[in-house]
């Protein structure tokens, strides 16, 4: 059974303010929870609708009904388990190899997909502007499918941080140089911008290289690619030559 | 004002069965609706919360309140307008150039993103298995951001159709040949599979080329890329050489 206080605490964790206050976040579904446990995220409590996670101490497990789980779930389709984890301390930024930087990406699905792409392409560091959607938002945690544990995500003053890194900075712009014809290095920062507005003028000023994914269809259109699919193409281009 | 019957009709259109029965689908938001009007989709009716679409006859416009719009909207965040369009007749499959084929893609967001990618990369024909999510699902229409009007989408018996096309068939598999090292033609079919199960064994049998996007990160992991991001990378690879 879940107590009223537990329900209150867990449902509060959909808000960043309360995640910060309690230092906790939630994850749902066996796959994602397992990945987080394996990666040494500190498990605070597990809510399960059937016997699961045999390696976990019974002291931090609560058996709940489907309707109780639905009450605490942050997803439209609730799973058969929900876990509360401690938010770990932020780690130092890794400056080797390629780094991805996000300038105000707001959609949780996009951030989650980008983390999964970083994991696929062996990119260990993601730097986010402070206005980028929070990593521990339940929809982000879900969309990462466990990759959250393998990519170091840092929230920073993006402009200051990028200047201090002293690395080449590649920004994606509609009018940049054709990425297929650009020599791409194996270290540097790749900046992706906000869904509606792209890269801010502040970051544009410090970009050392402007690149673009050419459009092959109707050339008059101004509609851009979705930021997660643009990230997929850009990362593939950077890595294919290595 | 919206009548009870109109509300009943419009809200029924979130279900494929009723879209088929009435031959109608809905689209929301100025941008998407404008693209559909420009592309000669036949507009049945417009519901607007303020004066919009000045070129459209007043006879098929209804001014509604925000709360009325919310009642008929299929989206969590309703917009300031909703349109009901006629579903056009399916057009003949175009067999020139590259064709994308989807083997049971179920997620509306994925289908919408893939249509947008086809539009970006100048791919005019998308072939879907009958189990693929319906093109006129409101979430698909929304995710295409208007591209729905520029890509010809056909629902067919995928296996039969692919065999009859007599084109090279490229399937994406975890154990396929490194796509970065494969010679890719400028005509042929690229098949992407279901989110959970990939390409079915039926289609695997008729694939003439098995390709894969190499993983650069943790090589033990079996988790695949999301189908929309995989499509982005594969289409970029096929088109970059042209």
TrEMBL record, chains A, B:
What's a single GO MF annotation on this record? RNA methyltransferase activity
Mind telling me which InterPro entries this protein's record contains?
A: Alpha/beta_knot_MTases, MRM3-like_sub_bind, Ribosomal_eL30-like_sf, rRNA_Methyltransferase, SpoU_MeTrfase, tRNA_m1G_MTases_N
Instruction: Provide the GO biological process annotations.
Output: methylation; RNA processing
Q: Name one Pfam family in it.
A: SpoU_methylase
Question: Which part of the chain is the tRNA/rRNA methyltransferase SpoU type domain?
Answer: 98-235
Q: Which family does it belong to?
A: Belongs to the class IV-like SAM-binding methyltransferase superfamily. RNA methyltransferase TrmH family.
Q: What is this protein called?
A: RNA methyltransferase, TrmH family
Organism for this UniProt entry: Flavobacterium terrae
């Amino acid at each position: 059974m879940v107590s009223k206080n537990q329900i209150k605490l867990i449902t509060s964790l959909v808000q960043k303010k309360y995640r910060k206050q309690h230092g906790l976040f939630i994850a749902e579904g066996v796959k994602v929870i397992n990945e987080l446990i394996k990666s040494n995220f500190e498990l605070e409590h597990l809510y399960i609708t059937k016997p699961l996670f045999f390696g976990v101490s019974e002291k931090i497990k609560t058996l709940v009904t489907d309707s109780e789980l639905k009450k605490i779930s942050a997803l439209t389709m609730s799973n058969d388990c929900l876990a509360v984890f401690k938010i770990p301390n932020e780690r130092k930024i890794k400056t080797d190899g390629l780094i991805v930087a996000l300038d105000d990406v707001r959609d949780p699905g996009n951030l989650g997909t980008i983390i999964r792409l970083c994991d696929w392409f062996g990119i260990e560091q993601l730097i986010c502007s402070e206005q980028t959607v929070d990593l521990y938002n339940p929809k982000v945690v879900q969309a990462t499918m466990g990759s959250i544990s393998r990519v170091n995500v840092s929230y920073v003053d993006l402009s200051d941080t990028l200047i201090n890194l002293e690395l080449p900075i590649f920004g994606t712009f509609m009018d940049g140089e054709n990425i297929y014809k650009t020599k791409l290095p194996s270290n540097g920062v790749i900046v992706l911008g906000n869904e509606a507005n792209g890269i801010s003028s502040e970051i544009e000023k410090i970009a050392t290289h402007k690149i673009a994914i050419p459009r092959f269809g109707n050339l008059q259109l101004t509609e851009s690619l979705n930021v997660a699919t643009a990230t997929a193409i850009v990362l593939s281009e950077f890595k294919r030559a290595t």
